[in-house]
Every structure is written in structure tokens, then in C-alpha cells.
Amino acid sequence: MTEKITRWIFGTAAVRVSGDTARFVNVAVKSGITPLELHREDEGVRLVIRASQFKKLHKLKIRTHTRVRLLKKHGGPFVLRRILRRPGLALGAGLGVALFIYLSGFYWGVSISGEAPYAKSEILEAAQRCGAYIGAPRGEFDTALASYRVMRELPRLSWASLNTDGCFITLSVRSALEKEQGAEHSGAYDIVASRAGLVREITAESGTVLVEVGSAVGAGQVLVSGVTEIGDPWGEEPLRHLLSHARAEVIAETRHTFTASCPLRMESAREIVRGERRALYVLGVRVPLGLSGAPDADRIAYTRELLTLLGTELPVWTETLRAADLEPVTVEFSEAEAKSRALEKVRQLEAFYLGETGELLSEAVSYSVRDGVVYASASCVCLENIAREVSLTDGQ
Fold it and tell me: Strand, helix or coil at 206?
């Protein structure tokens, strides 16, 4: 493909050579003419060369006493030459491109999607008053502001959104929703999937269930809707839509991967006790129990122990000052020990994620060793509640 593009940019010429073709080809190559293609025919040979080398063939045919006939010219240089011979064509093409660029700066179509308690002409007139019309400049159009103004113009809409695609505007509308009795204090919510999974059980207290047991769902998919449709879709009366707080528990089979690691060699610290100092406190008066003080150390710890008599605490206690240094040590684990420690961390991650309600159905554990670190990875199949409440009324 690259070679074809290069040939078109620089141009090629196809010629037929008859006569002493062997000498012609040898002299052409020595003169710096490299054939792109060479085909032997009954009358001679057929060559394809670059357009810039075509003029050199005149001297070669005189030198070698051969006949050269031009068969075809192809490529950008010849196209450009033809265009320059017709300036009107080039001017027309330039004006066409300029006109296309200019017209692409405006919107040339407005469409409506969704259901609304208004006629289509009323919605289009409201959209035109808000700046969404055929011929509206693209650079000056604010979709968020126009959507807000459309909702102000048409109060029986619960939602309106202006979306643009190239030079076209789509106005998505939704009819007004009524709140269910008692929904004012808790708001309106959908139940969506917190993660992808296979639904095993649905227990819905309120709302409209949109999925079935055994169906696969994706993260963010609406499982139980907080919008309840009331009425006959084929009747004369318009449908009513009630907002409610959907409540449900959706148990699904999900897949997770938990990974933990343990190094085969790690630096740690060991505590070395340097000395202790004890004292007795009687009614707040300190009485030393030794003559030597505690040595200087990296770590000093105090402990206090109250004395009791027949279960009653006395105003007497002992205090112990313990001084210790930290000595760096290198801890090495065998590969089996590192795998065991990494697997233990994986188990902790599983327990933390599943909590009290989740259940681990199966797992496949694999190990790998990279750069002196053992990694344990568990691919688990779990059973968990993926229901998550999402507000419907925020921002409406």
C-alpha cells in the first residue's frame, strides 16, 4: 500500500521498448534509470519507470537504436498538470471546499426522540426559541443552557436533553413523572448493578423488576426501576408514570481476582533488651527499686501495674521502664513458606470483600515468582448482592 501511494505521488510512466532491448536495459540501468516493473512481451519489453526519468529515455533510444513508445502516464504530477491547464476547475474545487467548511459551521437538522405530552410542532417551536433550529451557528450553541431553557418553555416535561452529532441536533424528551404517595421523604431511586454478574435470585420490595433470574447483567445496568407505568398503552387515556423508591436485593454470581505477594527475602528488625528499671509508687510518691538507671536505647517502653487487695485497687502501683535496641535482621522464606503467606493474605482479602453476606462458591489459585517475590492469585466465583441504589430525582 505504501509503495502504491509513493508511486502515485511521484508519478510513473509505462513504455514499450522494441529493438535491442537487452542493450537498452543495460545502458538504462548504468545511466541511473531503475525500472519499477519489467515485463517481456512479443514486441519487446514493457517498462514502468518514475515520471522524472522519462526524458532520459530519448538519449538512450538514440544511443541503442531502439524504439520507445509511451503507453500510459499515471500519478500526481500529471493530475496536477491537467488541473493547472484548467484554472476554472481548480478554482471551483477550492470554492467547493471553502463552502463545505463554511456550511459545516451550522446545524442543518433538528429531530425529536422520546415521548412527551406536546405536539411535535410545539416542541420544535420551543427548541427554536431556545436556539436549536436549522441554520443555528455551531460555535455559539450551548447544549446545557438550551436544554434548561426547553424545560422552562415546556413545564410538562420531566427531562429534556439536546445532543449534537456533527451538523444535526437531537432533542430527547421525557414526559412528566408523578411521585408515588409517601415518596417525598425518601426520594426516587433505581436499583442498578454494582458490577457484572449472572442473576441467581431477586427479592424486590418495591419498583419494577427489569431483569429475570438467569440473565447476565453488566455494571451500571438498571435491575429494578423506580418508575412505574400505570395505564393501558393501547387505551385513549395517556399513561401515567409514578416515581418511587425501588428496594430490592439481587443475588448474582460474580467473578473476582484477588492477588497478594510475599518476598522470599525481606529486611526486618529484632528487639534486644538493654535493661530495665523498676519503681514503686505509693500515694503518688515514687520509690526506686534499683540503683542503676535505664541505659540509652532506641526504644523505651513504660508499663504500670496496679496492686489489689481482696479485689480492691490500692493507691499503690509498680512501674517498669524497659529499654531495648532494634537490630536489623534478614528474614528468608522458602518458596513453600512464601506461597503459604501470600495465600493467607489472599484469604484475608476474600473475607474482607465478601463480608458476612457474600459467599465464595469456587476458586482457582495460581502462583508465580518474579524478581524474588512470590505472587498468589485467586480467580474466584462468588455469590453476592449487587443491588445499588441510584437517585432518579437529583438534578431533575
Answer: strand
CB 191 within 8 A of CB 389: yes
Q: Provide the b/e sequence for 64-74 (b: ≥16 CB within 10 Å).
A: bebebeeeeee
DSSP string, 4-67: HHHHHHH-EEEEEEESSHHHHHHHHHHTT---SEEEEETTEEEEEEEGGGGGGHHHHHHHHT-E
Distance of alpha carbon 390 from alpha carbon 220, whole angstroms: 10
Residues 163 and 197 reside in one and the same domain: no
Nearest of 38, 47, 48 to residue 4 by alpha carbon: 48
Secondary structure (3-state) at 235: coil
- Domain membership flag for residue 390: no
Helix (H, G, I), strand (E, B) or coil at 241: strand
Q: Which three cell numbers stand for residue 254?
A: 460474580
280/289 Cα distance (integer angstroms): 7
**Number of neighbours of residue 92 by Cβ within 10 angstroms:** 11
Provide the number of structural domains found in the chain: 4
Q: How much is the mean pLDDT over the chain?
A: 81
Amino acid at 85: R
Q: What is the pLDDT of residues 290-324, one digit of tens each?
A: 766 656 666 777 788 888 887 788 788 888 887 88
Residue 396 pLDDT greater than 50, yes or no = no
Task: Indicate the pLDDT class of residue 262, thresholds 50, 70 and 90.
Answer: very high
Strand, helix or coil for residue 299: strand
As a whole number of angstroms, the distance between CA 73 and CA 86 comes to: 19
Whether 211 and 223 have beta carbons less than 8 Å apart is answered as yes
Confidence of residue 208 (pLDDT cuts 50, 70, 90): confident
**The last residue of a domain, from among 154, 175, 196:** 175
Q: Closest Cα partner for 258 from 106, 365, 371? A: 365
Tell whether 18 and 51 lie within a shared domain.
yes
- Distance CA(152)–CA(143), nearest Å, equals 14
Grid cell of 190 as nine digits: 433505581
Q: Which of 36, 37, 38, 47 is nearest to 69 (CA)?
A: 47
Answer whether residue 90 is part of any domain. no
- Is 150 inside any structural domain? yes
Instruction: Provide the residue range defining the domain that includes 124.
Output: 110-175
**Separation of alpha carbons 174 and 271, rounded Å:** 70
- Verdict on whether the full-model pTM lies above 0.85: no
Round the CA-based radius of gyration of the chain to a whole number and report it: 43
